[in-house]
Each structure stands twice: as structure tokens, then as C-alpha cells.
Amino acid sequence: MTTLKQVKMDKTYQDAFHELGRSWEVSPELFEKLQEITCHMYLPSTHTTEVNKLRYELFCARRGEVESSQLPPCEDCLFMHALRANYQAAIWRRSLQSQPFVANPTDCGWMTDEDGKLAVNWMRGSPAPDAVMQLLSCKCVRSCELPKCTCLSNGLKCTDMCRLQTCQNKAIEEEPVAQQSDSESDVDDIEED
């Protein structure tokens, strides 16, 4: 069954979409419903209603052999998308008002880039813990370029786990500054006397 057919048949889903744009904020209750809908879009037979749990279940079921496009968005990304969709729906709901109040888009899933233009704010936090980020890798051979490089496709820097070790997408590692302890500096002062 397609998602659209499911929405047409399920009053709970219709109510969730009907709530979009009524307020400039996305309530926790609305977001729970949107998570459930998203879970059923990716796996209609699931009883899981949280996208992060479903991501984990799908990842484990495929023993890690899964492209990121086959997984639902993480909770943080879905929330930011819900904020943007809600913002647009709120503008449409107020389109017939002569002077509607319009919330600041930077409070609704958007940000301003270095040129001051609106840009999508994809997520608030890191896509994964740092330990996991170091395990990600691409299989590029000659160069890391879109759309083939999975690191670039996901907005990440290449890591030491990547096949190509000389690409332009690697993070620049900074040399740690050696810190001299107080006792060492005291020894230096004594030797100078």
C-alpha cells in the first residue's frame, strides 16, 4: 500500500497533517505522529514508532549493508524537516490575511549562510557519535566526487577508513600543541640561574 493510500485510509494520519501550520511550533504530540507516519513509510509492517529505533532495526536486519537513502532520517533531521514543513504550512494557512504575523524562519528549521541568505538547517547536532564517525568510509578509487563518494553525499569528511587516502575531502588534522608542565618550567628557571 502506498503512503498516500495509507494517509487517505487512516484518520490518525489525516489529523496529523491537518495540524501542520496551525501553530509556528511543532508540538511533541504532532512530532510523535509524524515519526510514526515516517516509520510506516519506510516499513509498513513495523510496530516501531520512533525513527531512530527503526533506523537501528533496519541497519541490523541488513547486517550493516545498507545505503543511508534506504533508512529513514534520524530523529533530529526529521524534526528539522517537520519544522520547515510546518513553517510553510503556517504561511499557507495565513495567506488570505492582509498582514499576517510570520515567524522568523531561523526559528523554524532554517539558518542564514555566510552571505546572509536562507539555507536549510539539516540537523542541530552531529550525525553520529565521534567514535562512529571515524568508522565511516567510502570506496572511491581515483577521486572523491559527488555523487559516487558516500562521504561527500552525506556531507562528511573522508576518514582514515576510506580506501583513497589522498583525496581533497579529508579533514585537516591539527598537530597537538605540546604543553609544558609547571614543574618543567621551574627546572628551566633553575638551570638558567
UniProtKB/TrEMBL annotation:
Biased composition (Acidic residues): 183-193
Region span, Disordered: 174-193
Listed name of the protein: Tesmin/TSO1-like CXC domain-containing protein
